[in-house]
Amino acid sequence: MGTEMVMVHEVPFPQQILTSKSLSLLGQGITDIEIHFLQVKFTAIGVYLDPSDVKTHLGKWKGKTGKDLAGDDDFFDALASGEVEKVIRVVVIKEIKGAQYGVQLENSVRDRLAAEDKYEEEEETELEKVVGFFQSKYFKANSIITYHFSAKDGICEIGFETEGKEEEKLKVENANVVGMMQKWYLSASRGVSPSTILSLADSLSAVLT
Fold first, then answer.
1. Which tens digit of pLDDT belongs to each residue from 146-194?
2. 78, 80, 85: which is closest to 60 by C-alpha?
3. Do residues 23 and 49 make contact, with C-beta atoms less than 8 angstroms apart?
4. Which SUPFAM superfamilies does this entry report, sorted A to Z (predicted)?
5. Could you give the CA distance from residue 192 to residue 30 in angstroms, rounded to a whole number?
6. Contact (CB, 8 A) for 154 and 175
7. Is the pLDDT of residue 18 over 80?
8. Which positions ≥6 away from 173 have C-beta within 8 Å?
9. CB atoms closer than 10 angstroms to residue 2
């Protein structure tokens, strides 16, 4: 991991991470909710991409402003489905049971798959595997969930790190499930973190310009 750190809502994120190549932090934000006029933050999010991949695969949006891109579902669909390596790093701010997080993920992915008539037995089995991975975990503050989406083969490796324990990993190999997991975080109109989408849109607009 790179040594330069960026603070995202008081949570440190490396500016770059190394996978098969160096990926840069191009989007950042939070998941939150407002309760009685108080903002409650749940997670901080960082999205890592290779800027040269963005230019190669998303060049037709060159010249668009960040505001244009932030509201463009086609653009974010192309990002999610494109042959672009991505890492989404999620850091827990407010403690939560892993089972709660898993249910949120399951509901979103299942609904998206069902809407496109892609929710078959294979998808159900794979999604249950993902939910099972989170089921027994407790997300203490500063726990880290990492989604590493490979560029070409529709595979995602999920990692979970928490204080005092070794990192645990799960490989998700159903391309339909993996695609909708990406769209949970990378969707203009239905993403779980609008602030991340706005940040990513501004960065990608600059990269494409």
1. 999 999 889 999 999 999 899 999 999 999 999 999 999 999 998 999 9
2. 78
3. yes
4. Chalcone isomerase
5. 9
6. yes
7. yes
8. 126, 154, 155
9. 13
